[in-house]
TrEMBL record:
Pfam families: Glycos_transf_2
Keyword Membrane: yes
Protein name, entry field: S-layer glycoprotein N-glycosyltransferase AglJ
Highest taxon listed in the record's lineage: Archaea
Entry keywords, A to Z: Glycosyltransferase, Membrane, Transferase, Transmembrane, Transmembrane helix
Enzyme superclass (EC): transferase
Region annotated Disordered, chain positions: 309-344
Length: 344
């Protein structure tokens, strides 16, 4: 049975001196020996405070500077994490260490490979601005519509997952889109995912957020749409196709009205309308075909995974049987020899 020795607590940071010491100390106090802080070039003593509190501290490569959370997470997972389970959180003291077991138990029990903490289940007053709540609602709704799965709070920074499952993800985000990419990859790769309630605390007064609700929100929305190309191509191409076709229809109605009612012809606008309709229809057809290819690829991948799992299980069983029969055969032959020597 897995325990806390098998867990790496991963904390990406940038200028979190006001809180990082308490965050690291609280998780160490909960029995987590492997706390990894990967820092994006803080200039306020974050790294030193984290090390004093008991964390292993590494500085991410590249520019970092706070906007590189995604790059920091990818680098940590690929180079520095050695434990089979990862508990990821922010270093701003908004997540409670005593709720870590809620996220880890589904992993230890084998019920899930990725667990997301739902901040909206118990959000303290002032923990999230009204603007951020609206933005989160829009993003979560967009995710469920585009990718066909409701994970309640895809932007939550408090989550746990197996290292094996996350290493099959195609993560490319450098900034705050990393949680979005993880959620999409869970759906795309068929990773078993569950959501658990957590408490979301307000940041301390002397701690400042590195998140910009407008620029980072736009990046997250674009990430959702961009990743639909390989996860839901019907939506990705179909949405543009429908928009193009609607523009063509509107222009065609205008041209027809001008021609039949006013008596004025608009050849150029008519050409644009026809082009918009044809382009829209072609994109819709391409989206349908791409969706069929993606569905087929998923089914083939699932079957290959099942075959590989069965072969692995059979190989393990065969090895176990081989190890068990050899001693049994030796014992049996020894018994036969003992029986034969005791006969008159």
């Amino acid at each position: 049975m897995a325990d806390r020795d098998d867990v790496c607590v991963l904390v990406p940071t940038y200028n979190e001196a006001a809180t990082i010491g308490d965050v690291v100390a609280s998780f160490v106090g909960q029995g987590f020996e492997h706390v990894l802080v990967i820092d994006g070039g803080s200039d306020d003593g974050t790294r030193e405070l984290a090390a004093e509190a008991g964390a292993r501290v590494v500085e991410q490569s590249g520019t970092g500077r706070g906007s590189g959370k995604g790059q920091a997470v990818r680098e940590a997972l690929n180079r520095h994490v050695e434990q089979p389970y990862v508990l990821m959180l922010d270093g701003d003291a908004t997540y409670r260490p005593d709720e870590a077991d809620r996220l880890l138990e589904p992993l230890f029990d084998g019920r899930a490979e990725h667990v997301v903490g739902n901040r909206f289940a118990d959000m303290e007053a002032g923990a999230m601005t009204r603007l951020n709540q609206v933005g989160n609602g829009i993003i979560n709704t967009a995710f469920s519509v585009i990718h066909g799965r409701d994970l309640t709070d895809i932007l939550s920074g408090y989550r746990a997952f197996t290292l094996e499952s996350v290493r099959q993800f195609d993560l490319t985000a450098d900034g705050f889109g990393i949680e979005t990419e993880m959620a999409v990859e869970c759906v795309k790769q068929g990773v078993s995912t569950t959501v658990v309630p957590i408490t979301y605390q307000a940041r301390p007064d002397d701690s400042e957020t590195n998140l910009d609700p407008f620029s980072d929100g736009a990046v997250i929305i674009l990430t959702l749409y961009r990743m639909a190309k390989t996860n839901n191509p019907l939506f990705y191409f179909g949405s543009v196709g429908v928009a193009s076709a609607l523009v063509g229809v509107v222009l065609a109605i205008y041209v027809a009205y001008e021609w039949f009612v006013v008596g004025v012809s608009h050849e150029v606008i008519a050409l644009v309308a026809a082009s918009g309709l044809l382009f829209g229809i072609q994109l819709l057809m391409f989206g349908v075909l791409s969706d069929m290819i993606v569905a087929l690829n998923r089914e083939q991948t699932r079957r290959l995974s099942e075959i590989a799992r069965q072969v692995g299980n059979e190989s393990t069983a065969a090895d176990a049987v081989g190890d068990g029969t050899e001693p049994s055969a030796e014992g049996e032959s020894d018994g036969e020899r003992a029986s034969s020597t005791s006969r008159p």
